[in-house]
Amino acid sequence: MIATTLILGTGPTVLIAVLMLMMPSLTQPTLPLGVSVPASRVGEPVIGQAVRKFRLWVAGALVLALASVFALAWVAPVAASTVPVPLVLVLSGAAYVVARGGIRRAKEQEGWYESVPVRLTASVTGGHRAPVPFVWYIVALVILMAAGVVGVALYPSLPDSIATHFNGSGVADTYSPKSFFSVFGVLLVGFGLVVLLFALALWVRVVQPRQRADADPARSARRAHAQLRLMQGLLGQITATSSLLIAVSSLVVWLGPGEAALVNVGIFVPLALLLVVIVVFAVRYQRAMRVAPAAAPQPAPHGEPVSRAGAATSGLVASASRDARTSDVDPTPSDAPDDDRFWKLGLFYVNRNDPAFLVPKRFGIGWTINLGSVGGMALGIVLALVIVGAIVAGFVLPSQHGFGVH
């Protein structure tokens, strides 16, 4: 079962590394590695050097992780399938912190925002609601129900002991007495996952995230709508792919947990599909960021004055609350506020004076919560508890009750 160990070790590792390598291309040019810079400075050599350094470190982390997979696969299969992913994440995180530090130092030392007009022109309330792609959730349910039908048909002929735990080589090493839960437990988890992700899709449709700041509010609104549609599509496709992985996992247990070829195909195909889904999404997402600008707005008789970098962040709420469709817009070219102080490591947004619950991510795709708001803090705690619970369910409970893959 060496092939299974290699797939488990290399598949997720390559997937995460590819995401990391693509990430700088999925963010706005004015937010290199999560650092806010004026549009006139996006071509600074220090920015290009920082991005190249980040990607070089990620590539090096991938090579090191893959080397560890092949070095450990024959002697320590569990380590070979579990160590590479954390290794890539830790080294990529370190590369991100180090590389973005160079941009921040150059910005501060050279005063990139001095005398640069800034304005937050995006609307807090938005105005577009991306439709939920119901077809993907229907596909996910059909996949799980089809697997359930097969399970019901096979149930009488299944052995009295059902494989409920697999080691790092994909070999069953723990069995449980045949019962409804031991046979269909994984499928039940799959149905719960579909319901959870569908509820998340509905929530994203209802809760309107703030748009990105842009000198052209109309362009900002169109870009936000396109990105929301893509995010909804990605969520649905991930749901369908995850259901396929869960269904195949159940079929492997029922039809032959000792069949290496069946196990390998069951693991490799969903991972390959997930990689394709993410790469296609990344390409489409990058195109959506390059939405053409609308016609330049006409200056109002009494246009509001353009704020400067020093006062931009203190007026965040007041300027953000203006609707993007208003005609009272100063056509003077301006940049987004230099609000780095509200972004911890460029990843976590904490601003008690911002009423927005969801804000665009600075590094990555989609939106993140405002941890400075009461609702954002509550959701952050819930998500942390869910993550801890998943870790406990994935590593502690299997060792006690025999379910899972180690």
Descriptive account of the structure:
By secondary structure, this protein is mainly alpha-helical. The protein folds into three domains: 113 residues, no CATH class; 167 residues, no CATH class; 68 residues, no CATH class. 59% of the residues lie in helices and 7% in strands. It contains eleven helices and nine strands. The strands form four sheets. The protein has a three-stranded mixed β-sheet, with helices on one face. Strand 7 and strand 8 form a beta hairpin. The longest helix is centred in the middle third of the chain and has 39 residues. It is globular. The protein starts with a helix and ends with a strand. The C terminus is likely disordered.
**Total strand count, please?**
9
How are the strands of the biggest sheet laid out side by side?
Answer: 3-2-9
With helices defined by DSSP (H or I, 4 residues minimum), what is the helix count?
Answer: 11
Span between termini: 14 Å
What share of residues is helical?
55-70%
Indicate the low-confidence ranges by residue numbers. Answer: 292-332, 394-406
Short summary of the structure?
This protein is mainly α and 406 residues long. Helices cover 59% and strands 7% of the residues.
Topology:
Layout: H1 2-26, H2 45-72, H3 77-82, H4 84-110, E1 117-118, H5 134-154, E2 161-166, E3 172-177, H6 180-206, H7 217-255, H8 260-289, E4 307-308, H9 309-312, H10 316-320, E5 343-344, E6 348-349, E7 358-360, E8 367-369, H11 374-401, E9 404-405
Q: Which features would summarize this protein structure in a list?
A:
406 residues, mainly alpha, 3 domains, three-stranded mixed sheet, two-stranded antiparallel sheet
